[in-house]
Amino acid sequence: MSTQIGNPAAGTVNVAGVELHDLSRAELLQRLNDGVFFNPNVDVIMKLRRDPEFFEMFHRAEFRICDSRIVELGARFLGTPVKEKISGSDFFGEFCHYHRANPDVRVFLLGAGPGVAEQARRRINDREGREIIVAAHSPSFGFEHKPQESSELVDRVNASGATVLAVGVGAPKQEKWIMRNRDYMPGVRVFMAVGATIDFEAGVLPRAPEWMQKFGVEWAYRLWREPRRLWRRYLLENTPFLWLMVLQRLGRLPGTPQHRH
Q1: Do residues 92 and 192 lie in contact, with contact meaning Cβ atoms separated by under 8 Å?
Q2: What's the pLDDT score for residue 188?
Q3: CA distance 176 to 193
Q4: How far apart are CA 87 and CA 89, in angstroms?
Q5: Mean pLDDT, rounded, of the chain
Q6: What separation, in Å, do the N-terminal and C-terminal C-alpha atoms of the chain show?
Q7: Which of 23, 102, 116, 131 has its CA 20 to 30 A from that of 125?
Q8: Which stretches of 145-235 are assigned E, i.e. beta strand?
Q9: Rounded CA gap, 179 and 121, in Å?
Q10: What are the b/e assignments for 51-74, b being 16+ CB within 10 Å?
Q11: Per residue, what are the HEC states of 2-63?
């Protein structure tokens, strides 16, 4: 089954000017056979509002799914609840398990630090009982600005025979790289931006306890683990999201990049 660009035959919900597709986990697993999968949290939504190029690229993706409990609560506050919050870190493992007996699904992992993607590849394959992850590679820092390395990565993906590419290098780098290069990888049917998922799958970065995930405070756990790297994101850059929800509820949401440019 193929999907029309930007539309997985699902309704959409507008949160802070960003259009999200309203799909349940079961629906997403069934429909994600072709296209690009992005799953924004609060941080990504705030980046989208500041970056016109990212905003435009993001809205060309066929599957744009709510990844955050806080975004889910925001949608409910606006009176347009989504069916389900689908954490990308959980969903990638569920996707692999769902397709564990499907030989047409062959995944390439791109991202994380040196050796981490390969470690994740071994762990996932051991868990699923087959070589569903056919290759893994950790790119150099700043690879997205190096045309030769990007070209070599595209060649590496094509040579692997992968039909799924999971890129985990952080937003907006992963989303922009996927959208700029998707047409050069004709054998890849599904593209997934997976953030820190590769680190989680490799076992080098622990997930927050389930109760913290359930109550939408996984960010606090990550801030505690990596305060120097994440304090600005969580304490300064993301807090205006709450005010945006109030403004949107009042019909006074400031324009998004496509309206400002």
Answers
A1: yes
A2: 98
A3: 10
A4: 5
A5: 90
A6: 35
A7: 23
A8: 164-168, 190-193
A9: 24
A10: beebbebbeebbbbbbbbbbbbeb
A11: CCECCECCCCEEEECCEEEECCCHHHHHHHCCCEEEECCCHHHHHHHHHCHHHHHHHCCCCE
Length of the chain: 261
Rg (CA), the chain: 18
Q: Determine how many CB atoms are found less than 10 A away from the CB of residue 108.
A: 26
Q: Are strands 190-193 and 35-38 parallel, antiparallel or unpaired?
A: parallel
CA dist 35 and 6 (Å) reads 9
pLDDT of residue 4: 38
Question: Could you identify the residue written with the tokens 């060649």?
Answer: 155
Contact 115, 84 (CB under 8 A): no
Which tokens in the block code for residue 237? 């850059």
Beta-strand ranges (E) seen in the chain are 12-15, 18-21, 35-38, 63-64, 107-111, 133-137, 164-168, 190-193
Residue 78 banded pLDDT, cuts 50, 70, 90 = very high
Closest by Cα among 75, 61, 84 to 17: 75
pLDDT in tens, 106-125: 999 999 999 999 999 999 99
DSSP bridge pairs for 36: 191
Contact yes or no for 3/64 (Cβ under 8 A): no
Residues of the chain with pLDDT > 90, as a percent, come to 79
Q: What's the pLDDT tens digit per position in 184-226?
A: 999 999 999 999 999 999 999 777 788 777 766 776 776 677 7
The identity of residue 212, as a single letter, is M
- At residue 80, does pLDDT exceed 50? yes
